[in-house]
Structure formats: structure tokens, C-alpha cells
Design a protein that fits this description.
Length: 502
């Protein structure tokens, strides 16, 4: 098992054996000037960046963070300037200390003979003046050093996590395997009509996009009748499977402080400047009082990670496994078209998210546990899926490695061969815990008293896409109905088949 110690990373060696998180809305923290006083103080491993600037620069290029590629070298340059300032100021501090020592010895200026007192008083005055000048000069130098230090930390916060050697470089994912083997399903003439969840949902009175467009706009929807029941059934089934694997259920808030979202790696805008996160507008009173900004969480990963912000966890309590259902909000829902119409890409949806804090070295076990849960759920639902090792350009800021599972959508055959993402599993190492100041208290006798745990997150179930896949893949052309997977029957109030209403 690999210990996730950044200082151990060197060129041409295996960097990590873990997973990263979604790229769509992740990157940098805001500068310290814009962080409220209540925000956790980030503690970045700047020493490792200084010692390995080429690794971090190349990592930025491989992950398409081109604007950040020069940051590691800027950090090295600023540190060298800071170090030179420290050396230059050492002589001034030594001289200042010598004067303070001289002034503290009263006998130096006691003046026993009257004639000598005037000269000694003059000398004392000159020493006081010199001490004042030295103090001002040192204060200016120290202010400049603090400025350099703050700039170094702000730059370090912009860098993405390092990348696993198991992550393919470039833009293409690697297919690792399939769930419910279904490599090349034959195309049916009704794939884009009846085997389309928008058509099924409209004809069977399950989905209402028109009313939602009037009420909220494009990218929203109403779930009706069996679709509304299916949402609750999917949530309950996902929670049941996760709980059987030792996860504790938590219902997190959907609104979070913006600095908590930033600490998790989620930023307001993507690399292209497109809005990603819904910010909450403040009242004039809140602005005057400089109260912290709020955002709507794009995933329960954010509020779950925030549960342990500024907290210390005893190592014996790790791993801590949470699973939380929540409403999620994403400002960017994609361009209009067949590939994003319907439930596939929306602004608001229900998702069940898994989140784990684990000691360094336990990431692989936590990851495999989440992946096993995802496979069990999707296999039981009868969906045809493929498992992908995602490439470096798809990784978000916090990710070191990521695996996605895509389901087959008959109506999307012309887009990506019909495949569409339904789950994602990521390991973030200590990226989030360093920025949220989440620490682990090691047992007595350990080399370090405190450490930073790693975080792992994964989708147990994202309702809209899975619901769409169930409608399309559960379609029975002969009987003109949609068959509901048996594992969902306990929550469907006796409904096993969805038929057209009269």
C-alpha cells in the first residue's frame, strides 16, 4: 500500500495510487485578502513545491492548467528573494540587538564625573536614534517578507493536485471493463423515439419540462407520478447499499460558505470563464457587515468535507465514512442539443454522495469500497455500463486519479456512442484537508503528532441520469411500457411497470 506522502514524490517514480474529482468546476482558492476571518487557514506543502518545481509545472501542462504552469518557478524565485532578505536583515538584527543590550546596561551611561555626563548623554541619544532607525528599517523588511510569504501561499493555492501514474495523459480515457456485459447493442428503429426518456416521460406523464421552463427556465424539470416515486426509490436503494457497507447517513445542507467550496477545489468559473457555481446575493446589511458569501453546493462532497473543517480527528476513528442525499445545483448545464436535452444535464438534481476521511495509506481501500457500491447498484438496476480510467485533462484541481462509470443511453447513440457518465469516484489525498485545516491526531510515539488525512469521494447515485437510463433501457416495445428494476419495488407502492395513462 502506497503512503500518500507528497514529500516522497520524485520524478520517474509512482506518484500516487488514488483518484481525483470532477473537473467541471474546480481549481483555485481565493486570495487571503478575500477570505473571511472565520475561514480555515490553509497549510500547503510549499517546501515540496520548491523542491520539485518541474514536476508541478509539467503536472499543470498535463492537466490543461496552462495558466498555472509558471507558478512553481515563481514560488522558487519569491522564496529565494525572501531568503536573501532574511540574510540581509540578519546583520541589522544583530546590530539592533547589540544596541538594545548596550542601552539595557545602565552603568554604561551612569556618569560618575560631571564632565563626562554630557558626552555620555549625547552618545545615549545617538544610540536611541540609531535603534529607532534600525527598528523602522527592520519593520519595512519584515512587512516585505510577509508580503512575499503571502504571495507564495496564494500562488501555491492555485496549483492542482499531483497526478497518478495510473492516469492516462492526454484527453482519452482508458476502458477498464463493463458492467452487465453489453459491448455493442444493436440499434433499433425506435431508439430516438420511444427509447428516448424525454418522449417516454412526456407521453407517460412522468416529466414536465414545459412548465419548469415557465417557472424556472431551461435546465429545470418536474418529476411526476412514477418518476417522482422512482427518485425516492433510487435514493433509498442507494442509501441501503451504502449503509450495508458501513456508511453513516447524513443529510447535509445545500448552501455553503463560498470559502468552503473553494477549499474543496470548486471555483465560481471554469477555465473558459463560464459560470459554474450559483452564488447567493447578499443584502446591503450583510455587505456592510462583510459577512461571508454563500453558494449553492454543486455536490454534497462540499458540505460533507466541511463537516471536519478546523477539526482534529483521532487516528483510531479513521476511516470515517459518510453517505448523504442532497439537492445539487450547477450553473452550467451545457449547450442545448440532443446530447444535453431532457434529464441528462440539468441545473438542479438529487444525488447520493459518498465521502470518506482516511489515514494516509488507506485511500485505495476506501476507493475500492466506493467502486464496489457503484457496481452493485448499477448492476442490480440492469444498466449496461463501462468503467473508465479518466485522463489527466479531465481531472479537477483536487484529483490525483479518477474513475467514471458510464451507462448506455439508446437515445444518445449518435453522441459518444450512447455512453454517458452516471458515477465518478475520486481520491483527493490531502488537497482538501490541508485547505480546510482538517487534521489527524496520531497515536503517542508517532513521528509526527499531527497529520492531514486523505479524502475520497464518489457518487452512489445521481438521480436524473440514472432515471433517464432506466426509462430508456427499461422500455418494452412489445408491451409499450417501462419495466422497473426489482430492487426498487419495495419503495414503489406496488408499481412494477409504468404504463401510459388513459
Amino acid at each position: 500500500m502506497i503512503k500518500w506522502d507528497l514529500q516522497a514524490l520524485m520524478p520517474r517514480r509512482k506518484l500516487f495510487n488514488g483518484h481525483g474529482s470532477r473537473r467541471f468546476s474546480q481549481c483555485r482558492l481565493r486570495s487571503r485578502e478575500s477570505l473571511p476571518s472565520i475561514a480555515p487557514k490553509p497549510l500547503i506543502n510549499i517546501k515540496h513545491i520548491r523542491q520539485n518545481p518541474q514536476i508541478y509545472s509539467q503536472n499543470c501542462l498535463e492537466r490543461n492548467y496552462k495558466d498555472q504552469r509558471e507558478i512553481p518557478f515563481k514560488i522558487v524565485k519569491l522564496f529565494d528573494e525572501w531568503l536573501q532578505s532574511q540574510k540581509s536583515a540578519r546583520g541589522l538584527r544583530e546590530k539592533n540587538n547589540a544596541i538594545r543590550t548596550q542601552l539595557s546596561h545602565s552603568r554604561t551611561f551612569s556618569g560618575i564625573e560631571g564632565g563626562g555626563q554630557d558626552g555620555q548623554a549625547k552618545e545615549k541619544t545617538e544610540l536611541f536614534e540609531e535603534a529607532r532607525n534600525l527598528k523602522k528599517e527592520l519593520q519595512s523588511i519584515e512587512a516585505l517578507e510577509r508580503q512575499w510569504n503571502d504571495e507564495i501561499e496564494d500562488l501555491a493555492l492555485e496549483l492542482p493536485n499531483l497526478t497518478s501514474d495510473q492516469t492516462p495523459r492526454g484527453d482519452d480515457p482508458k476502458i477498464l471493463g463493463y458492467i452487465n456485459e453489453h459491448l455493442n447493442p444493436s440499434s433499433m428503429s425506435y431508439d430516438r423515439t420511444w427509447r428516448n426518456h424525454v418522449h417516454i416521460g412526456t407521453e407517460f406523464d412522468l416529466l414536465d419540462f414545459a412548465s419548469a421552463a415557465t417557472t424556472s427556465g431551461w435546465g429545470w424539470y418536474y418529476l411526476k407520478n412514477e418518476a417522482a416515486l422512482l427518485e425516492q426509490a433510487l435514493v433509498q436503494y442507494a442509501l441501503q447499499v451504502a449503509m450495508q457497507q458501513g456508511f453513516t447517513v447524513v443529510t447535509p445542507p445545500s448552501m455553503v460558505y463560498s470559502h468552503i467550496a473553494s477549499a474543496c477545489g470548486f471555483r465560481p468559473r471554469d477555465q473558459s470563464g463560464e459560470q459554474q457555481v450559483y452564488g447567493i446575493q447578499q443584502s446591503e446589511r450583510d455587505q456592510e457587515k462583510t459577512r461571508p458569501l454563500h453558494s449553492l453546493a454543486g455536490t454534497a462532497e462540499i458540505p460533507l468535507a466541511g463537516m471536519k473543517a478546523d477539526a482534529v480527528i483521532d487516528q483510531v476513528d479513521l476511516p470515517i465514512q459518510m453517505v448523504g442525499p442532497s439537492r445539487c445545483y450547477r450553473a452550467e448545464a451545457g449547450a442545448r442539443g440532443v446530447e444535453t436535452k431532457g434529464l441528462y444535464r440539468v441545473h438542479e438534481f438529487t444525488k447520493v454522495e459518498m465521502f470518506t476521511w482516511t489515514a494516509q495509506g488507506g485511500e485505495d481501500k476506501a476507493f475500492l469500497s466506493m467502486l464496489a457500491i457503484q457496481k452493485e447498484i448499477l448492476q442490480s438496476l440492469g444498466l449496461h455500463c463501462r468503467i473508465l480510467e479518466m485522463p489527466s485533462t479531465d481531472l479537477g484541481a483536487s484529483a490525483v486519479r479518477k474513475q467514471d462509470i458510464e451507462a448506455f443511453f439508446p437515445s444518445r447513440r449518435e453522441k459518444d456512442g450512447g455512453w454517458g457518465e452516471v458515477t465518478s469516484t475520486s481520491i483527493c489525498t490531502d488537497y482538501q484537508t490541508r485547505r480546510l485545516n482538517t487534521r489527524v491526531r496520531n497515536p503517542a510515539g508517532s513521528q509526527a503528532k499531527m497529520d492531514f488525512p486523505s479524502t475520497v469521494n464518489g457518487t452512489a447515485l445521481a438521480v436524473p441520469r440514472v432515471l433517464a437510463a432506466l426509462l430508456e433501457n427499461g422500455w418494452d416495445e412489445k408491451e409499450v411500457c417501462v419495466r422497473i428494476p426489482e430492487v426498487l419495488w419495495p419503495w414503489m407502492h406496488g408499481i412494477h411497470v409504468i404504463k401510459k395513462k388513459r
